[in-house]
Design a protein that fits this description.
The structure is a homodimer. Chain A has about 425 residues and is of the alpha/beta class. Chain A contains 16 helices and 17 strands. In chain A, strand 16 and strand 17 form a beta hairpin.
Amino acid sequence: MKAEIITIGDEILIGQIVDTNSAYISSALNKIGVSIYQITSIQDDESHILEAFAAAQSRADLVIVTGGLGPTKDDITKHTICKYFNDELVFNQGVLDHVAHLFKEYIKKPMLDANKTQAMVPSKAEVLVNEFGTAPGMWIENDNTIFVSMPGVPYEMKGLMENEVLPRLQKQFKLPYILHKTFLTYGMGESAIAERIERFENELPAEIKLAYLPSLGRVRLRLSTSGLYKEVVEVAMQEQADKLLPFIDDIFVGYESDGEFEQVVAGLFVEKGKTLAIAESCTGGQMVERFTAHSGASQFLKGSLVTYATQSKVDILGVDPGVIKEHSVVSAQVAEQMAVNARKLYKSDIGISTTGNAGPLKGDSDAEVGTVYIGIATENGVTAHHFMMGNHRERVIGKAVNKALELLKEELLSK
Amino acid sequence: MKAEIITIGDEILIGQIVDTNSAYISSALNKIGVSIYQITSIQDDESHILEAFAAAQSRADLVIVTGGLGPTKDDITKHTICKYFNDELVFNQGVLDHVAHLFKEYIKKPMLDANKTQAMVPSKAEVLVNEFGTAPGMWIENDNTIFVSMPGVPYEMKGLMENEVLPRLQKQFKLPYILHKTFLTYGMGESAIAERIERFENELPAEIKLAYLPSLGRVRLRLSTSGLYKEVVEVAMQEQADKLLPFIDDIFVGYESDGEFEQVVAGLFVEKGKTLAIAESCTGGQMVERFTAHSGASQFLKGSLVTYATQSKVDILGVDPGVIKEHSVVSAQVAEQMAVNARKLYKSDIGISTTGNAGPLKGDSDAEVGTVYIGIATENGVTAHHFMMGNHRERVIGKAVNKALELLKEELLSK
């Protein structure tokens, strides 16, 4: 089954928002065996929407449309659907009851006339219940193509996908099994990896595709394949994974299906029964945020401090002002004291710290922009590592957090 | 001038990455007067790329292409460009010198054969220097349409846009002035706002467009217009802004051009000469991360603590264990002690705290999922606010941080 996604909204075309819906929808459809052929983002403009609908219908079995279903005048998707399918809006009591229920239970304000118009839906559409909002989803079958229209608000769209769209597709069609296996690697560039795994790549069967995805200090290698029988697909994939791993064992940190890198590290903490305390300066809370973005961080994370100002490193973390004066606040010595004292303060097994200068301004030290020290303290002592991470603020911070995660992983696996 | 963006890469179509490049490119082009008509994401597949090129060329004056320029076998954009323009790859000494320079200065490893192939470029293309990577950008003019091809790595693409693409477009064309003005509002739903500003919306001149962008606890109202003369456009926009503001003065917090909400609040801290300390529990570091994601946070932010575990609230923040026992760790009393003690620890003017349960697990307290207390302490005392923020982890955290920012803003503007 071939699908296309159409996201509607001027805010996408002027770059005011990043379209995260398409990635979610693509991933969710892939998991049930639907391939995405194209994603198209267009404006809230009737003729453009009609043109995009026709183009997508000519290529795809399923067209997923998001956006333009709000109660305000700038939203025109519903009227345009009527025009495209030569249909008209009819009143739907079920939708009105649902909207009234949402207002009574959650919004706790009187329903407005604009909200009542949500109950007008195209007569050819089956209504999909939007648990988290007032705009209903719609399912329309036309000449062997299914059109699904959903609101663009991400959590409303996700609720509709999970509760309505995915189950209906699985019930109505016999779908193949699509499998991606992504290997996270750290510390080597994509060309060097390509050279190293050349023989593996040349011998890869045609039905399995290899892709390289480079980003901050890491390269992800993805193998993709599909087939009608889950077991056959999984065996074929495992065979290739077993061949690939010996080539990359020194740079391989885990599979993406195990989650993001911080989730791999979090899993190791829980598995080893160890706890963590974090003291951040130049990374400004991004390390703790990476961990706490996922549920379950309280199982190993005792807490963290962001000591952004030099004085707070002294007052709260107890860093020796003499050491700061002698070595500067961006130094191995300060990183070590931060890690040791964070570990003591929070009574954790491991303490990790960052101090550096992410730029573009120099801040409390004269250290060159891009300088980062990471300290790691355990019951066996403390060490600090020095890095130069370039002059791009966002990248310096991201790379420093990834480096810290690498050091934590090494420490947890070291015995 | 009408532009389209084509992003190439299987990783987008399977939802492995979110396409952030398109938003950046759209916004950057808009700022110099170029409108984006459509964004299309397609696979690394020759026939699909050729089809998308032709479709875009039939509609647009400028086609920006990203992705598929890496040195590995899965990258086919350059060969496909040759096919589309009936061209061939030729050796370019300048590109090779640049790649050799990058390897010598930054990568500090020997150049590989795969990297040398970066110096092969279509003969019809002008090379655009990629300061941050080995794959050159390319600029090809064909039948009144300009094609620009850039790598998909975001910071490489951004460097090429800023150093090469935008200046060339501005030099080569007389572009109109596009102006968006976005009003950030908090605390009222979009339908209610629409009802309130109905008269304003009805009287809006045809050349100015109004859009509603609802998200976590806030609605952004955007006015968009364009014209040949910057001054005329600005006067027309200001006239409408002056009409709109009286309708929304109680819910308006600032303009998006002043930055994200946290930047508006950061600006107020600097303007008022006040400092901040943060103690986070349920928001897990997201509040401090929002502030430190922008340069200059050290001007007002003394530091932050994430006291995720109950014990660390006692040990580090000095919260009274008796109070925790009596009122539970998720309570107004604990939020107040956290804010007061964070303020004392960091010697700041204002202390702010969060304690709550973002779910999906209940953690260290029995509080219902979605319960959040925010404490705010100043020289004049401390208050705590109670909220129920639903049962969606990501939204609870995001809403709690936005609420905390609102409280900080109110405090800073209160006298």
